[in-house]
Design brief:
- The protein is α+β, with helices and mostly antiparallel strands.
- It is built from 7 helices and 11 strands.
- The radius of gyration is 20 Å and the shape is elongated.
- It binds benzoic acid.
Length: 221
């Protein structure tokens, strides 16, 4: 068996890094990534290949949640290393089998330049295809979350929405979200906010379990 031990040519991206900009051919035409995102949040996620079963269901779930992403001001872009014509034929299948209308772009990264820039090819998993990488990018173009799943496990896009909700609460209200939090449950006051300030900032009240563990009702509910 051959393993890839040689020094990595491509740096993996870390949280807080600027998401690399690129120009791409996509199923809806050519685009420039940062320009396309504008002031929106973004999700960029990769697929091993077109016309594969798990990917078909993932794109179907994402399409079914398009309104939820739009409500949160999130633009979604999928990516695989197949070409535009292949993507367009595959979209017809996705729409038919998943009962959706895919409205977001699928990037045709045939030269794998974007996949390499985002370290989406893990040679010890596959030398040819991207793994299931997913990046959430803020309006400041910084990476807020990255996850990597193997080709055989479809991602949970309701969980992706939950993370977006958490990130947007942090950005707008200086709160964090506890384990297994879901929309509507109490949130956590971040340690950087002093209790005396939190009492003013969160008029719905505080539940101070410990000086470092302070809950408040979700501020935007
Ligand atoms: C899929 O998308 O169904 C898939 C792709 C590669 C390996 C296993 C499953």
């Amino acid at each position: 068996m051959r393993y890839h031990y040689k020094k990595q040519k491509y740096m993996s991206l870390r949280l807080g890094d600027i998401a690399p900009d690129f120009k791409a051919k996509t199923s809806i035409g050519d685009l420039s990534f940062h320009e396309y995102l504008g002031d929106s949040w973004g999700i960029l996620f990769s697929h091993p290949a077109d016309f594969t079963p798990v990917c078909t269901t993932e794109l179907g779930r994402t399409a079914a949640l398009q309104e939820e992403f739009a409500k949160r001001n999130v633009k979604v872009l999928a990516l695989s290393v197949d070409g535009v014509e292949s993507h367009q034929k595959w979209i017809t299948d996705i729409n038919e089998t998943q009962d959706v209308t895919v409205g977001f772009p699928i990037i045709a990264d045939e030269d794998k330049s974007i996949a390499h820039a985002y370290d989406m090819i893990h040679p010890n998993a596959s030398e040819t295809f991207t793994v299931r990488s997913l990046f959430i990018i803020g309006p400041d173009k910084k990476i807020k979350l990255s996850i990597t799943y193997p080709a055989s496990t479809g991602r949970n896009f309701v969980e992706v929405l939950r993370v977006i909700d958490s990130l947007q609460l942090t950005a707008n209200y200086s709160v964090a979200t506890p384990a297994n939090w879901v929309e509507g449950e109490d949130v956590i006051v971040v340690p950087a906010v002093k209790t005396e300030d939190a009492l003013v900032k969160f008029p719905k009240g505080l539940n101070i379990v410990k000086p470092y563990l302070r809950y408040t009702p979700q501020p935007n509910k």
